[in-house]
Inverse folding.
């Protein structure tokens, strides 16, 4: 376990340095979120292969990630660790065949945005059935004539075997017996003549005893029951605070018990197969229970978190539980909730998919099917046409209809007012590609009618003015073309180059309850990706603007973005590629520049009073990185620079400049011992205030496995922050140490048991000094936590 953790840590550091993530500042916190997966779209995986999704940055407060495979929402089965999401396929196998894995970002307002769509190819790991083959090689002592006669005998045997596929009668049973005898004779005495074989067959035909049927390799009926339960105890027996008044009034010390469980079943009866998974969760601490946000103290201590039942008959599939449906970006795009989704191929040219789901997420046993509230659900169906079924997505058209109705439902902890909403719409989606898949195109169109339905909760007397329904449209186009594919430059270097273009147009006031779209906005994106062996280049330009109706009194905001990046392993240019020198680093560089500005001064919009309110800001971010990899240690260096150029009228001096140096070192002298060191130094300059703030951070970490199943980890970090004028100084020192032990006992059936235990101690010290006010404030917190987990599966 220790080696795995260390490898993950080292790999993460390398990726961070190589890709130029480094240390970013406030201007880079809003970078576009993207996701990558651990699998390759061109290489098949088995149904039990774990899936890992990595994000290019950590999620912000209130943000969530949803993962849809095909039409099934499997978010609840992913385990999150910072910006990594891991799916354990042992809980629920991956669906066989080709399917799309789609990753969505859910913002704090509940809007969904697609950030990645990846092709997942899953093939069965079981060996395919093979019919018995008759040996054709000439054995020692056989003549050519004997081999020839044996070949003729084998042809007769195969012909007789083909007859056994027909329904058996008494005569057929006799023929089947004759066939087995002929096969035996052919193998033992290949030199028999045709007359001898005929006599043997005639003699065998007299018997009417049935021959046992060969055993089938695939069971027509089976049932598997795979439960998993985890009972955990987490405790904080000790907490010390200085000064004493900083000690929290509640839960300074506590002991909680948690229960999580999963019940998986697999069954098959004839052509009907079923895979089901039910997840449960509970806690002794009421505020950690699943439905505390909506039921408060009435929430059950143990509740149903999610479930999914997949039924397959032939190629038709029905999913019940936490599922999703919809493939139109602006109308209904992988809407996920509890309900029903279906996928029925009519023939090789036509198919139908659809779903009925609750309008919001459902927890617990109530509304088990997710379809009990007709006025709080979404409904939709898609009719798909494959024009060339022999090649998937060669040319495909999808026609979608959608209807959604949301009631004004609020959780007990929500502080916002919502209104009843309804939307209905129609959409088209077209996908095509050439035979080599060098050219790919996807286009979509959506027409939606949105309005606020009457809401007796907000307007009990019915005196509110009813807003008219709004009918608006949205459309998009995504295309890529691989201009150069595996063009030979040298014996070991190939050149690949592809171009991409994206266009999206969403009319003002457009809205659909089944998808998230930024209304009143048009966006264009141009991209170029190239690779020469291991050397990769990326470049792109994006532009967008709002106020599509050109309302004179509304500010039109324009955005222009340019980006460029290169990853350059020096070993690809110097030395032998088959034996790269560890002294040659991997270099990386990226730059992106974003310009946000107003197109002009709106008429009678209030901006003419103070032109400084019209934005005009240019943000430029650059990152350079280098990484050295050796057998026992890795070293990395990253430099990043950000500059915010404010060009607003009368605010030209409100610029900010930031830069940072970061060093990382990972040592692995023994398989059971590893160290990591990190140091960073950054500076932030505010030109308006003529102020420079600097921060130094040192991190030390170690992992030691003193004996099998036991792991000790320790971390020490210190941060010094102050300004160049030396008016203030802040010092933070944090230390933590943890000892963990894991024990697993595996047998057959349900006789499997696992136990993990840990003890952790943390000490945090903060000192704030202000040399102007002559103040010195110190705080210190010591906390000990312990936990134990028992797994039954």
């Amino acid at each position: 376990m220790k080696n795995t953790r260390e490898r993950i840590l080292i790999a993460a550091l390398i990726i961070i340095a190589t890709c130029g993530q480094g240390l970013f500042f406030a201007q880079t916190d809003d970078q576009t979120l993207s996701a990558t997966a651990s699998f390759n779209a061109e290489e098949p995986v088995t149904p039990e292969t774990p899936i890992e999704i990595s994000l290019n940055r950590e999620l912000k407060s209130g943000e969530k990630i949803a993962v849809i495979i095909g039409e099934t929402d499997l978010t609840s089965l992913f385990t999150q660790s910072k910006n990594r999401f891991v799916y354990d396929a042992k809980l629920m196998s991956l669906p066989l065949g080709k399917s799309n894995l789609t990753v969505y970002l859910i913002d704090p307002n509940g809007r969904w945005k697609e950030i990645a769509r990846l092709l997942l190819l899953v093939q069965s790991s079981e060996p395919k059935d093979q019919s018995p083959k008759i040996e054709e090689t000439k054995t020692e002592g056989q003549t050519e004539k004997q081999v020839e006669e044996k070949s003729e005998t084998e042809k007769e045997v195969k012909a007789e075997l083909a007859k056994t596929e027909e329904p058996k009668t008494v005569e057929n049973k006799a023929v089947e017996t004759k066939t087995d005898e002929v096969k035996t004779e052919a193998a033992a005495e290949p030199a028999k003549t045709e007359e001898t074989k005929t006599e043997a067959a005639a003699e065998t035909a007299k018997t009417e005893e049935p021959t046992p049927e060969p055993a089938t390799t695939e069971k027509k009926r089976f049932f598997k029951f795979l439960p998993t339960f985890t009972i955990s105890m987490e405790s904080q027996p000790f907490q010390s605070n200085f000064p004493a008044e900083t000690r929290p009034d509640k839960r300074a010390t506590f002991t909680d018990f948690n229960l999580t469980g999963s019940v998986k079943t697999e069954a098959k009866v004839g052509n009907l197969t079923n895979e089901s998974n039910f997840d449960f969760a509970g806690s002794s601490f009421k505020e950690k229970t699943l439905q505390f946000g909506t039921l408060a103290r009435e929430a059950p201590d143990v509740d149903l978190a999610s479930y999914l039942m997949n039924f397959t008959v032939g190629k038709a599939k029905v999913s019940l539980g936490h599922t999703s449906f919809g493939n139109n970006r602006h109308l209904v795009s992988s809407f996920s909730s509890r309900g029903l989704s279906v996928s029925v191929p009519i023939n090789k040219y036509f198919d139908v998919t659809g779903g009925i789901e609750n309008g919001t997420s459902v927890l617990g046993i109530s509304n088990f099917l997710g379809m009990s509230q007709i006025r709080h659900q979404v409904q939709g169906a898609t009719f798909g046409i494959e024009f060339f079924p022999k090649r998937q997505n060669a040319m495909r058209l999808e026609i979608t209809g959608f209807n959604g109705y949301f009631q004004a439902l609020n959780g007990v902890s929500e502080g916002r007012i919502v209104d009843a909403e309804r939307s209905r719409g129609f959409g088209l989606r077209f996908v095509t590609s050439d035979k080599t898949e060098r050219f790919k195109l996807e286009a979509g169109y959506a027409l939606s009618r949105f309005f606020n339905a009457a809401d007796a909760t907000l307007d009990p007397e019915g005196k509110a003015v009813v807003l008219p329904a709004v009918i608006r449209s949205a459309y998009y186009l995504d295309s890529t073309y691989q201009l150069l594919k595996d063009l030979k430059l040298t014996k070991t270097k190939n050149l690949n180059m592809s171009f991409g273009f994206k266009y999206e147009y969403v009319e003002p006031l457009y809205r659909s309850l089944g998808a998230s779209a930024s209304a009143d906005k048009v966006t264009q994106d141009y991209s170029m990706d190239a690779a020469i062996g291991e050397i990769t280049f990326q470049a792109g330009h994006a532009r967008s603007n709002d106020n599509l109706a050109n309302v004179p009194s509304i500010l039109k905001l324009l955005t222009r973005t340019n980006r460029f990046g290169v990853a350059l392993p020096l070993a690809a240019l110097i030395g032998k590629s088959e034996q790269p020198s560890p002294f040659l680093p991997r270099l990386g560089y990226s730059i992106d520049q974003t310009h946000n500005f107003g197109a002009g001064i709106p008429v009678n919009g209030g901006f003419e009073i103070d032109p400084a309110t019209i934005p005009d800001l240019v943000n430029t971010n650059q990152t350079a990185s280098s990484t050295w990899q050796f057998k026992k240690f890795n070293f990395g260096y990253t430099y990043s620079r950000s500059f915010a150029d404010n060009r607003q009228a009368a605010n030209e001096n409100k610029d900010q400049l930031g830069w940072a140096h970061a060093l990382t070192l990972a040592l692995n002298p023994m398989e059971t011992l590893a160290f990591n060191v990190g140091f960073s130094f950054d500076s932030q300059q505010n030109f308006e205030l003529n102020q420079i703030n600097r921060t130094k951070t040192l991190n030390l970490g170690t992992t030691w496995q003193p004996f099998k199943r036991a792991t000790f980890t320790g971390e020490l970090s210190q941060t010094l922050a102050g300004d160049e004028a030396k008016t203030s100084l802040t010092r933070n020192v944090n230390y933590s140490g943890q000892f963990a032990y894991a024990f697993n006992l595996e047998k057959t059936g349900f006789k499997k048991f696992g136990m993990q235990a840990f003890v952790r101690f943390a000490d945090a010290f903060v000192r704030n000094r202000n040399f102007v006010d002559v103040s010195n404030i110190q705080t210190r917190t010591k906390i000990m936590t312990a936990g134990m987990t028992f797994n039954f599966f």
